[in-house]
Write a structure and sequence with these properties.
Distance between the termini of chain B: 76 Å
Oligomer: heterodimer
Largest sheet of chain A: 2 strands, antiparallel
Largest interface: A-B, 37 and 35 residues
Strand content of chain A: under 5%
Number of helices of chain A: 11
Radius of gyration of chain B: 23 Å
Structural class of chain B: alpha/beta
CATH class of chain A: Mainly Alpha
Strand order of the largest sheet of chain B: 7-6-8-9-10-13-14
Number of domains of chain B: 2
Number of strands of chain B: 14
Helix content of chain B: 40-55%
CATH architecture of chain A: Orthogonal Bundle
Order of helices and strands of chain B: HEHEHEHEHHEHEHEHEHEHEHHHEEEE
CATH class of the largest domain in chain B: Alpha Beta
Structural class of chain A: mainly alpha
CATH architecture of the largest domain in chain B: 3-Layer(aba) Sandwich
């Protein structure tokens, strides 16, 4: 029992940190611009496949591969904003109150397009990225891949940098203000579209990093697009739509719930308790753990 | 807004109309001029992509040699995305619209089982190059008159398990003195009979099965599964994986699970699997009916060379069988002197064709598995290969072996004893 406890603690921490990083960007976008980006999973998979193709197929090495993966995540995010989201946001043909559902549908379809393109070019077999750190270490008697520790550390470093950026810089404070009151920020003379671009750029970096780490840790295939979007979506809903700290807490709740289920019940039922919890939260506290809306 | 939508849709409707009428013009029915074979397979999967490629290669070779009874063979391909409803639509289209004479379909048991009743309804011969479920041929036994058009051009799961046990007897028991195993299979139609036979044949060769784990095909994190297996201290993990492949293999290596994997790992048969797993497959042993550099029959190596020259990679396991299938369908049409489905069935039942995987013969009407391939030393015996330094090395049977057992450093042989 002792061994299983440590096993769950260590594995759960690594996967939860990764969920936290993935969901943070998703929550940020929603908080600032009200956009639920349903192409989230596709952007992550695109980053993984790019890192795999560059690092492992073209033998550029793990560092260059990771850099290219992050760059593709970044580029794909900005492309999503400029090609899919922004034209709809600015369209005069769509009624204001309908825009949200238009953007929801458009990002979903955009995600499907990316998924099909990846499957067409690189097959739908799973891809894994060579980890930057190899080997295993013993922690409390648990043989842990060093890569798992690396994943957790990078996730928290990135989240810490993001926190500093939002709370300690002028641009970051503008982003924070926009998430609280978009109209107020415009009145103070900050261009809202500039903030949107900044947020999508930050989101792109987060998606790229989370994707590459996921590729090194578990690997993905084009089939992972749906489940990845769904997991980010449920974490963000659980944490409270638009709340980044809520998303962080929810990521750990979901990550540990999944790991406990996988170890103590069966890996086949891994995702079920987290989804049941989500349904329960919807009934009892529809705005989520730390939601404002 | 409605106006703007109309503006968008009008050109689309026009384009659709034009392309439909173009399609109608492009498909005149000249059923007499060629022999048409439909190929239904998922082009986006590593295993599936070899099927239409190998079939086309065989057709081109036959055509270059003069065709069959003076007619050329024409291949029609359909991508079913390995989904049963799409495969059924493709089958209907192949028969009703493209007027094919026979169909080569899918390596997924669930898909082939969905197509099976349609072979009877549309009275069209179908041969599968890669599905393994025993139920396919058990169905034929129950309803021969309707389902006799289905032929199982790949080994049944039960035969695959037996071939794996035969190899395990020599390699695991004979050479490594192993005594215990955990069976780890993905949850799918083809592994039900496979696992049943594993649990039956492993104890007979002296390997005690300490646990039997069925893994959900959408599993992404195999850590809990490997941890559980390691806790049970078996000498070996006997695998039954096909839909999953990259993730368990990579995680096995990353977590340095000290127990070897041996058994069926369909994706490992493909030459690109080394790159797909970034080398994590080193040391994995897998059952197959063919392998690069292994001259199972005089036809094997020339086929691999021709395939590689044309497509730039080695064929997957169903590439070999799909290639053979085009040849023995052509041979059956030649012997039948007709493309009539009932005559073709009679001729296919008498098949005795030297293919790339062995001597192709089907079990008869009175067998519990009619139209299943005969497996054995005189027909198709199977191989056991191991990935070593980026290459697929054959270890068994010894008369066609080109290497010896070798494991990566993290494997602790006999640590359980």
């Amino acid at each position: 029992m002792g061994a299983v406890f440590w096993q769950i603690l260590i594995d759960g921490f690594a996967i939860s940190s990764l969920y936290a990083l993935g969901a943070t960007g998703f929550a940020l976008i929603f908080g600032v611009s009200g956009v639920l980006n349903l192409s989230h999973g596709a952007l992550m998979v695109a980053a993984v496949v790019a890192a795999w193709a560059a690092g492992d197929q073209l033998h550029a090495g793990p560092y260059a591969g990771a850099a290219i993966g992050i760059a593709i995540g970044f580029g794909a995010s900005l492309l999503t904003y400029f090609m899919v989201v922004r034209p709809l946001q600015q369209s005069r043909k769509i009624r204001e109150e309908e825009k949200e559902i238009f953007i929801l549908t458009a990002t979903l379809l955009w995600g499907v397009m990316i998924q099909e393109l990846i499957a067409y070019l690189y097959t739908d077999n799973a891809k894994t990225v060579s980890p930057i750190v190899q080997g295993v270490v013993m922690i409390a008697g648990v043989r842990t891949p060093t890569n798992e520790i690396f994943t957790a550390i990078v996730c928290w470093l990135v989240i810490a940098v993001l926190w500093l950026l939002v709370n300690r810089t002028r641009a970051g404070k503008a982003v924070l203000a926009a998430s609280m009151n978009p109209r107020g920020v415009t009145l103070l003379g900050t261009e809202l579209s500039q903030i949107y671009i900044a947020v999508w750029a930050i989101y792109g970096l987060l998606v790229g990093i989370a994707g590459v780490l996921l590729g090194m840790f578990l690997g993905v295939s084009s089939y992972s697009v749906g489940p990845l979007t769904a997991s980010a979506f449920s974490i963000v809903v659980l944490g409270g739509l638009g709340s980044v700290s809520g998303a962080l807490i929810a990521a750990y709740v979901v990550g540990y719930l999944e790991t406990i289920t996988a170890y103590l019940i069966s890996p086949a039922y891994r995702t079920i308790p987290a989804l049941l919890l989500l349904v329960a939260v919807m009934y009892v506290r529809p705005r989520g753990l730390l939601g404002r809306r | 807004m409605i106006k703007s939508q109309r503006r968008v849709f009008a050109p689309i409707a026009l384009a659709a109309g034009v392309s439909l009428s173009a399609l109608a013009l492009a498909t005149p029915s000249h059923a007499e001029d060629t022999i048409k074979i439909g190929v239904i397979a998922e082009a986006q999967a590593v295993a599936g992509s070899s099927i239409p490629q190998a079939a086309q290669l065989a057709a081109d070779e036959i055509n270059a040699a003069g065709g069959v009874n003076g007619k050329k063979i024409e291949i029609f391909t359909y991508d079913d995305h390995s989904k049963a409803p799409e495969a059924v639509l493709a089958f209907q289209r192949a028969v009703n619209q493209d007027h094919v004479n026979a169909v080569i379909a899918s390596y997924i048991s669930e898909v082939v089982l969905a197509l099976e009743p349609w072979t009877g309804r549309l009275k069209t011969v179908m041969v599968t190059p890669g599905a393994a479920s025993d139920v396919i041929t058990q169905n034929i036994a129950k309803d021969y008159d309707n389902l006799k058009y289905t032929f199982h051009g790949y080994s049944t799961s039960t035969s695959i398990a037996d071939a794996t046990c035969d190899a395990a007897k020599d390699l695991l028991v004979g050479q490594l003195h192993m005594k215990s195993a955990v069976v780890m299979s993905e949850d799918a139609a083809w592994t039900t009979p496979l696992d049943a036979e594993y649990l039956n044949c492993l104890p007979k060769i002296g390997i005690n099965v300490v646990d039997h784990i069925r893994v959900s095909p959408d599993t992404t994190d195999f850590t809990p599964i490997f941890n559980k297996i390691e806790g049970e201290k078996p000498d070996v993990i006997i695998t039954g994986i096909s839909h999953v492949g990259v993730q368990p293999t990579v995680q096995w290596k990353q977590q340095e699970v000290p127990i070897p994997m041996f058994g069926v790992s369909s994706q490992a048969t493909n030459s690109s699997f080394w790159n797909d797993t970034t080398g994590a497959v080193e040391g994995v042993l897998y059952q197959a009916f063919s392998g690069p550099g292994v001259a199972v029959t005089p036809k094997t190596l020339p086929f691999v060379t021709a395939f590689n020259k044309r497509y730039g990679n080695n064929p997957s396991y169903c590439g070999y069988t799909a290639y053979d299938e085009v040849y023995y369908i052509a041979d059956a049409i030649k012997r039948a002197g007709s493309t009539d489905s009932d005559k073709l069935v009679d001729a296919l039942e008498k098949t005795n064709w030297t293919g790339t995987v062995g001597q192709i013969q089907f079990k008869g009407k009175d067998s519990p598995n009619p139209h299943a391939l005969k497996i054995g030393p005189t027909t198709i015996s199977g191989l056991m290969l191991q990935w070593q330094d980026g290459k697929q090395v054959n270890l068994w049977p010894t008369n066609v072996a080109n290497g010896k057992l070798k494991f990566p450093a993290f494997i602790k042989l006999g640590s359980a004893n």
